Amino acid sequence: MKNKITNYLYFTLISVGVDNMKPRERFIAALERKPITGLVPHFELVFYLTMEAFNKVHPLHRYYSQWDQMSEKERELHRNDMADIYIATAEKYDHSAIFLHFNPSRLDEILRMIDLVREKTGDKYFLMMHGDATFSIPDGEHMQEFSYRIADEPEKLKEEANRRVEEALDRAEKIQKHGGLDGFALCADYCLNKGPFLSPSMFSEFVTPYLAKLIKGYRDMGFYTIKHTDGNIMPILDQLVEANPHALHSLDPQAGVDIAEVKKLVGDKVCLIGNVNCGLLQTGTEEQVIESVRYALKHGMPGGGYIFSTSNCIYTGMPLERYELMLEIWKSEGIYK
Description:
By secondary structure, the protein is of the alpha/beta class. The chain has a single domain, classed as Alpha-Beta Barrel (TIM Barrel), CATH 3.20.20. The chain has 14 helices and eleven strands. The chain has a seven-stranded parallel β-sheet with strand order 2-3-4-7-8-9-10. The protein has a two-stranded antiparallel sheet with strand order 1-11.
């Protein structure tokens, strides 16, 4: 009887397509808001806890000031180690996608790393990299200068915005011809907890047209796009969606962004990624973490077009066991019947 039940479950899974879809295919199906069965796809923009998980320093925390002085053999050892860390993270934590962070970040090394991860994993994982070129929140050193430029030389600022997009698309065209990359995560942060760093009307003048141009250019090349920004996006949610990304990340609950509301407003237009509360993962109780996970799944999953993740990333200082707790709930409850 036990063997009969096991065989029945196996063939049932095959019939609904669970076993036939690779993580990359499930990720793409979610981006395209197509129905899937089984676990909701999951990934994180960055998983910084590689020392805790693998006793390895994360690639972005390595300093290669002497890269050009290294022998090619030494560089190749570093490349393989970085690729193996990305792959090990995806395998251990069931990520459907890998966000490649290149160090150093010049084009020749970007292409080498894409090739290396593809060589090691085939088409198992969706591969993406950073690709934003739009203005983000200036740091404290440059905020005043940026504000003056908006007032004193708006046309020059727009020319710069357009030039940045053109340069990004030129690089993307080279990557597209080389092959291997699936898409771009657009990681310019626009919003603080109270709202965007520009008023909606100014945002529509200095950011939205260039974001839309960037996304269209990527789409025309066959790339998928995920628009990331922390903070309260609600005043500019309509503009972000009109720019036509495949997905929005991270739907920040610490800034009052409610995934249930966002799903209701734009869930039929764009895939949603998030929004497990990062702050609770670090400082909340286990019960609060579980509640946040369940809320994100409950309101993100219906109708598809949802990818499970935190509201930012797995950053340095977050207890690894909290991320693992988050994944336990996802694996038991984030299942499409």
